[in-house]
Amino acid sequence: MSVWAVLVAAGRGERLGEGRPKAFVRLGDLPLLAEPLRRLDESEWVDAIVMVAPPEWEEPAILLAEELGASKASACVTGGATRTDSVRAGVAEVPEDAAVILVHDAALPALPEDVVPRLLEALHQGYDGAVPALPLTDTVKRGRGGVVEETLDRTDLLPVQTPQAFIAPVLRAALEPSNTVLQATDCAALVEAKGGRVRVVDGDERLLKVTTRADLERVTAWL
Ligand code: CTP
Ligand code: MG
Q: In principle, which of 45, 69, 136, 156 could form an S-S bond with 116, CB 3.0–4.6 Å?
């Protein structure tokens, strides 16, 4: 069973505000992209990796993969205007005979090695997709214009992470442009909209998403 990873790194990093795409902001001595790329490359569960970079950052991404000796990095393609567009561009580079596609955000650099096998196990059980999630500990309210409208029952709410794993043809079908999901911020939402069954597996706190400067400092301190 071949497992291809699509590493999406084509966002602009506007909330980080470093004047360059988030994946190319320094994390220690290297661009942030180096960390998830190296971890996917070292994973015994991953066979090959497609990187998705912002326009004009494809070359630096390829050079970085060479510098790291990331031999599983097979291609780097240009991303699109939205995350979904970028995933679609990356998936288009995955060969037809791939069994599983793993989609991972470069914005979650510190990928622990035991997350991927948990996701693959769920696919073995017959699910179309699998996502890592952590229990929600905050109280969650819905509000509008700065005023609380209601307090939600958090027991069924799941903050999810990446990587997310999918049976390859299921993800390809979900990415068809006819599948218009409002504000799909992850791939599972696209698969769910098509009626796919997505399994929740244990996430990991180390999969912290880098959005702001403070997140970047926290991840830097861990590594
Ligand atoms: N992403 C992408 N293509 C886009 C938008 C996002 O490949 N058009 C990727 C980002 O590179 C990131 C992941 O999707 O790895 C999650 O996006 P996010 O955290 O929002 O990153 P950015 O879009 O770069 O940040 P911002 O929204 O602050 O600009
Ligand atoms: Mg974004």
A: 45
